[in-house]
Amino acid sequence: MRALAILPVAALCAAATGQNFVVSPLSATSAEANSNNTIPWWSPSGRYQQIHGDLRGAPRAFQGIFLRKDAINLASGVARTVDVELYTCDSSFAGSSTTFASNYIGTPTRVIDRKNINLPDITTSQGSPEPWNIAFPFDRPGVYTGQNDFLWEVVMYSNTATGTYALDAYSGTDTATGPTLTLGTGCIPFGKTSAMGLSGRITARRSDNTHGVTWSVSRGPNSQAGVLLLGPADPNSPVPGLCVNVRTAPLIDIPIATNTSGAYSLPAIYFGFQAANVGLKLYSQAFVLDPGQSGLPLSGTNGLETTAPDLPPPSDPLQRIYSNSSSATTGSKETYAYGLVTRFLY
Fold first, then answer.
1. pLDDT reported for residue 76
2. Residues of the chain with CATH 2.60.40
3. Fold assignment, 3-172+315-345
């Protein structure tokens, strides 16, 4: 099989007079995306599909794809030669699965015949975002009607270098986490050397439209019963005999019990998201029986102020399905939007 050298971007652009480009996701057109992806170019072989759900509505005859180095992972990417073929096809982002063939709508087009393609050395940064200097010009057009989503697929039979080759990638998110503020310092339980602690958070999850809460106690008295108090305000009130100020005006109390290491974690609790709750603050504090404590036989944690966040913005519809075997029929896929930032020539 003949080797195809990767041409400089400028030369390719000059040859593509009158042609256009579109980047998916659109937000990464002229800005670095928020992640990096070493798949599939780190593997000795592999199969990689990527589905773009943001290209609908505009029919195009794609002539090639361009990728770019990740601008943050600066030490990655020695040159390598990959033995590949590339396909395009209509697909469905919403209906994507781990079975490669199930992601085709219609019959895939082999747009790059099997051949050796040289991927350039990308160990040196050229700016942020990096240039589109990893090019895959098609042997024949990938015709796209714009009626469905668009899929491109690489089948890689061999690779001369299997170290990291980190390219710019986009990662969506399903969950947003609200800010937390630690209030004061907890008691030091009898027989221990550091203060008892409380951590927690409130999250907003788009996939099921919920808010979720969770709390964890650490460094408390071992194997003792206690209570987690929740309320709408921080009174910061001293109580005679208590080794810590009270940092919540409790409306809810949840029984807890520490383990043999003095820890306790409340399983996450989810409830329906309501926009009216965004920005509301919840104050929490835990108390655990501590017979060795002077004064009242209780040790308390720090207080905690947690704020309810809004739902994260909708993710760009991008998904990858991948395997480290060129003959695989199924692969792995993310539970959230994720994929290589891709520039399409048409």
1. 73
2. 175-307
3. Jelly Rolls (2.60.120)
Specify the pLDDT at position 9: 39
Return the pLDDT at 70.
95
Distances (CA, A) of 251 to 254, 285, 341: 10, 12, 48
Residues making up the chain, counted from first to last:
346
What's the farthest any 2 CA atoms get from each other in the chain? Answer: 84
With a cut of 70, list the residues of the chain below it in pLDDT: 1-18, 74-75
β-partners of residue 155 are 47, 85
Query: Which region, left, alpha or beta, applies to residue 276 given φ > 0 means left and ψ of -120 to 50 means alpha?
Result: alpha
8 Å CB contact between 308 and 277 = yes
For residue 297, whether the previous peptide bond is cis, meaning omega lies within 30 degrees of 0, is no
As a whole number of angstroms, the distance between CA 239 and CA 236 comes to 10
Q: Could you tell me which residues come within 8 angstroms of residue 118 by beta carbon, excluding any fewer than 6 positions away? A: 3, 4, 5, 6, 79, 80, 81
The answer to whether 173 touches 98, Cβ cutoff 8 Å, is: no
Return the pLDDT at 72: 83
Residue 256 structure tokens: 């807890």
42-55: pLDDT as tens digits: 999 999 999 999 99
